[in-house]
Amino acid sequence: MVIKHSKTTVYMQLTSDKITEIFYLADEFCQEFSRSVQPYQIGNVPKKKPLMSQSEVIAIMVSFHLGGYRNLKHFYLGYVQKHLEGYFPDTVSYNRFVELTAQVCLPMTLFLKMCCLGECTGISFVDSTPLRVCKNKRIKRNKVFRETATTGKSTMGWFFGFKLHLIINDKGEVLNFVLTQANVDDREPLKNRKFVEKIKGKLYGDKGYLGKGLTELLFMDGLHLVTSIRNNMKNVLMELKDKILLRKRSVIETVNDELKNLCQIEHSRHRSFSNFIANTISALIAYCFLPKKPAIKYQPVQSGQLTVF
Predict the structure, then answer these.
(1) Which of 115, 171, 121, 168 is nearest to 293 (CA)?
(2) Is the pLDDT of residue 266 over 70?
(3) Model pTM?
(4) Which residue spans within 187-259 are E strands per DSSP?
(5) Strands 123-132, 157-169: parallel, antiparallel or unpaired by DSSP?
(6) Which residue from 93, 86, 98 is spatially nearest to 23, judged by alpha carbons?
(7) H or E stretch covering 175
(8) β-pair partners for 295
(9) How many angstroms separate the CA atoms of 173 and 176, rounded?
């Protein structure tokens, strides 16, 4: 087996074709979502519809994470309302737009789950990354996430916020994700059958996923968990291809890095929990629209050696 690790990713410029593509896919989904939800709605339907549709709000949020902007307010007021007036003619004020982003969290999450995730190829990688909501010296003064966020510890030290658990395939595509509090063990999401129900083959993780009970639980569902061992543990037999793929587990670290540095999934300017969820989901959707993703290339090599039984 020969494996090449490609870490280079071309940062995508926000073009009119890409905005049109995002809006078209979001609009097709939102129309189907509205038809499915309408018979089960409770209460009176508002007579006056919002000026901006759900698909327009989703398209703007995803475009923000692809445009290289660090601040949503600057992007909306300085770019969308001035340069994208032809695409979004009926824009609202920024305060009203923030309210609309909180209202589209449910359809945006379903759009990510149903239309943007990749397919399992038999080789998957799992990892968690911290999402800090403030700096450590401001933990006691944080009021927005006082009742939701917790304090946890990662390889980079203590932090206050949440954990994003990701599963990707060898192509760098996101297969599934879970958002938990910071003090939740990395192995807990894997015990949830819905998190790994579509993952088959082999799943590679770091030493934080070691556990005999977890390995046996996943193996019964047709998933082989492969991790490295700690220094104080006895050596175990492992196939050569598993050792090589464990060394290539850094591909998911590159995905986490792009989510934070390119897609702006982590920042400390949230003013409500719903806006934090909307920012996280839209960043994951934006990553799915990147033209090139971190991936590993491998091909089987026939050695021609005889096998004696």
Answers:
(1) 171
(2) yes
(3) 0.89
(4) 201-205, 223-227
(5) antiparallel
(6) 86
(7) strand 174-181
(8) 6
(9) 9
